Amino acid sequence: MSGRLGVFESGETYLVVRTRPLVACFLHWVLFLSIVVLTITGYYIGDPEFYYGQGEAYQAFAMAEMRLYHLYASWAMAFVLVSRFYLAFTESCNHDIKQFLPTPKNIVNAVKLAIYFVTLRGEGAHYRFINPLGGIGIFMMAVFMLTQTITGISLYSAGTGAGSLWWVLGSPIDSLLEGQQNVRLIHHLVMYFLMFVILIHVYMQVWKNSVFTESDISSIIAGYKIFPLSQIGHFADYYGLRLTEDAPAKKRMDEVSTAREKDE
Amino acid sequence: MCRVKKEYSLKTVEDRLGILESLDRREFLNFCAKITATLGLASAFIPKVAKAIEQGARKPSVIWLHFAECTADSEAFIRSTYPSTEELLLNILSVDYHETLMAASGEAAEGALKSAMAENKGKYLAVCEGAIPMATPPGPAGVPGGYLTLAGKTGIELAREVLKDAAAVICVGTCSSFGGVQAQRPNPTGAVGVEEATGIATLKIPGCPHNVINSVATIVNYLLLGSLPATDKHGRPLFAFGKRVHDQCQRRAHFDAGQFVEKFGDEAAKQGWCLYKVGCKGPQTYHNCPLVEYNDGCSWPVKGGHPCAGCSEPQFWDNMQPFYERLPDIHLPGVEASADKVGFTLVGGAAVGVAAHAAYTFANRKKFDGTLKDE
Amino acid sequence: MSERHVIDPITRIEGHLRVEIEVENGHVKDAWSSGTLWRGFEVFLKGRDPRDAWFITQRVCGVCTEVHALASVKCVEDAIGIKIPDNARLIRNLIHGAQYLHDHIVHFYHLHALDWVDVVSALKADPKKTSELANSVNPNAPKSGPGDFKVTQDKLKKFVNAGQLGPLTNGYWGHPAYKLPPEANLMAVSHYLDALALQSRVARLHAIFGAKNPHIQTYLVGGVTCVNDLNADRIGEFIGILEETKSFVDNVYIPDILAVAPFYLEWAGIGGGLKNYLSYGMFPQKGGEEPGNLWFPRGYIKNRDLTQVYPVDVSKIEEEVTHSWYKYAKDAPLHPSVGETDPWYTGI
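The joint structure predicted for all components is written out below.
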């Protein structure tokens, strides 16, 4: 992680922090798009409502097209899941994996934070990179997406012949859930669970962005955040920044650091 | 009750072949061709199939047991056309015990069972119809499995006794295969399939009722190769249960085209469009109905305009209901609703919550100073 | 001096039945029958989608298949006040009528006949005399030449000689209660086999509009689904098989009853149960309301008195559990709609 200090035209010092590499931003939006496509096409496959094949059956492919797009989008989602999982272990994205796990500590802190966000009372704490509420949310999203991928493979495998690769992959899930009908039910239900978490995720990002200095919106679009130095306080050490040489700004940062050490 | 002494005299191959001479050769070969196709074998196998049926010097002894059932699988079995039921019962198989067809009753029937088991020990085919209740009925006489008794024995006792010396056990119908109608929630009699009840591996030909072409094909496979056909993970023969109803359906083109029956009796129903939206379970069901159809290729449910109910799948009574909805309902403690209802409630609840939160925090925005304390 | 006998299983029925009889001086003095299987339909039907009820209820019996489905589907329609389209009424009547045809043939020949017909005695029959008998009962009898009966007899001979009697094993062959002469036995065996082939055809009547048999699958709360089968091809096939079956009933089945009945006349006075009979009626006709428009009218008959038919008041029907393996919370009979299902097994 690195950060860069600069000076606004107004004379105020600002800090630019790179929070994630561009490739991670790109993956996030691919994921976003794929989930949008998956939801729309998936909902259609579940309950074909708004698009009907015209003419003779051999001339129309409404459901076939929807299933094709669903398949393409699911490939995209699976690609993002795998590559994002890989990126999590690289230098540029090395954020402590413990932040995302529903450990007892994280759950307690998440509940505290949730109470604070809802009642505006109690403890509201800053967290390194991601707060436990968001961490658990992202963990749930990952689990749900994984479930969708696995059940999706099982649903896809049902139409392939016994012995094919898809069959080998999908059949154990079919056995585990006692039949395709239950696989279908889980696939359908988890879509709603995913919608539930995504709805809260998007809202919280927008809300936090408008209420707190802790913005993730620019971070997810461009991969960096800009903070007026007057507001950053704690951020300097949070990101373990290696600051670039920019004399006046460096001086200001040193002052901030010294002040913080004194506090402690 | 007096009995005429059995006159066993001629047991030679020539006599058996003599019986077969009485069959119409063309009809016989027609049957062989059909069975060969059902088994998924090349037409070069037709003579071999014919030979397999003709050659047995002694007809295989069949002991057909009825447990918790409705006899529809026996009825289905006697709907055979090629071979005719008569040939099947008299010339191809020796159905030594079958409560719906046999002449004897009571002790005489028990005697027939005992002698068939003794004479063909390790060689007879046991065909099971119906689930086996395992629960104990309430009341002073309740014993485990007491919901079904036959000649004073419980169903499970009889099953263990007969199946242990069978060359092979074939379950016809969904009840004997997986528990069937009586095993649905809350399964008051503790009914389970024969394999689960006895621990003896069985070949399963589910369906409600099963299709006779599949049971006959299985028996021919047994006569032809001396073994039962290859099965899937549920023990169902692959030749009949290897592919989904959906992938073999005559209405599949309408599914891909996005042309659906919205409600019964609409224009789409008259056009014979896809029944997916009115609850067809074809996409979840492995069965060869669309290819072989029932009653000698006459029809099958989707052809009759009714959604497939998934009757060949384990526990279909619970999994596939409601039959006119695509997805099953959710049954959890405190929750009895459709998946969509649960989903809409969840997402709708979140949306309402989020909106309320936004309104509340906006109204109280002064309480926030825009900073949080550090961890 | 009386002795008790147990007959368990009773064969050639649907289900599991045990009968215990007390015999005194060669006559049955008293008898007790028990159905020895309980599956709990009343229990697992609870809480299900009412649209699915007929599908489940049909599985009560696979021999008299369809009838329980029809009763159930009519109940649900009655409860929510649906009037089905006229075509659906016709299709249901056709399917239900086909069930009458099929069930009577199977019941008479395959479930019942072996109690009256001595198969082994048929081996001694003279095919020529059998042919004469058949033609004297019905001059239009099909397949009634001496050659026809010879074929059946030869088939039977070979079957018996092969040594594996299959379903005929341990029959009561030669028992004096079998009264038919060998020729009548041969005729009956021949028709048993004909009916075996025919019943499979008659079942197609169900499959044409009902998708399959046993357990048809085109009923629906509100009508039937088989709209695509309402074409000339299907209707033509239905008429064809119906004609074929009618011809069998007129020329074989009824003459057989007439031929066999004189030998067993004394049986006509036995049985009768409680001598009260109830019918809900069937086959609704066009227009009007049930039960007024039923082709088979609804009614009950008291004490075998066929001159008087009383109207049925369903509210007066009660379920008793005194002689069954159930218990009620209170020891009083209940109307089925409020009946309790609480098994209580006290043993045989």
